[in-house]
Specification:
Blueprint: H1 2-14, H2 21-36, E1 40-46, H3 52-60, E2 72-74, E3 83-87, E4 90-91, H4 92-104, E5 110-114, H5 116-120, E6 130-132, E7 142-144, H6 151-163
Parallel strand pairs: 1-2, 1-3, 3-5, 5-7
Antiparallel strand pairs: 4-6
Length: about 170
């Protein structure tokens, strides 16, 4: 256990984990300020995943990555959200909940999916209990690939999503 902690500390001290993070994060913060003139508020919805994507999202908001310092906040209510961040294949029991969550959001709104399952159902594709990917239920503007996507990939993908977002 000490060996793992020593390796992690050495990587953090050398900047392996965070060397590109500050550059990407500062660009993300600039883009969010340009498009929103405040923080970007995300509502995360798990539609039936294994939990791996959620673990990586949680890692992205821990003290090492700290998405919040770049202007990204997670909110508990879709009524306060600018965007949905959806993980997992859409199970039958979550299909209606996902639609209602999307409909409860104020306009303009957009949807980002994270992980291979959210794209097309992943390994659960074709299961009797899976509707498929999120785009079958609600419109998706950006997808973050991976199984699961790493925290740095989440930050980079948020930058690309916000940068390419057309705001009215």
């Amino acid at each position: 256990m000490n060996n793992i902690i020593n390796i992690a500390n050495a990587r953090i001290q050398k900047g392996i984990v965070t060397e590109n993070l500050d550059l990407i994060g500062s660009k993300l913060k600039t883009e969010i300020q340009k498009k929103f003139a405040r923080s970007l508020f995300l509502r995360e919805v798990d539609t039936g995943s294994c939990g791996a994507c959620e673990s990586e999202i949680i890692s992205a908001i821990n003290p090492v990555y700290d998405l919040q310092r770049f202007g990204v906040d997670f909110v508990a209510s879709p009524r306060h959200a600018d965007a949905l961040l959806v993980t997992g294949p859409v199970s039958l029991n979550m299909s209606l909940a996902l639609k209602r969550t999307y409909e409860a959001m104020p306009s303009p709104k957009f949807v980002i999916t994270a992980g291979d399952c959210a794209l097309d159902g992943g390994p659960f594709k074709g299961s009797y209990y899976i509707e498929g990917g999120v785009s079958k239920i609600i419109p998706v503007v950006f997808h973050i690939p991976g199984c699961p996507p790493k925290p740095i990939d989440l930050v980079l993908a948020l930058l690309l999503a916000v940068k390419n977002l057309k705001r009215s």
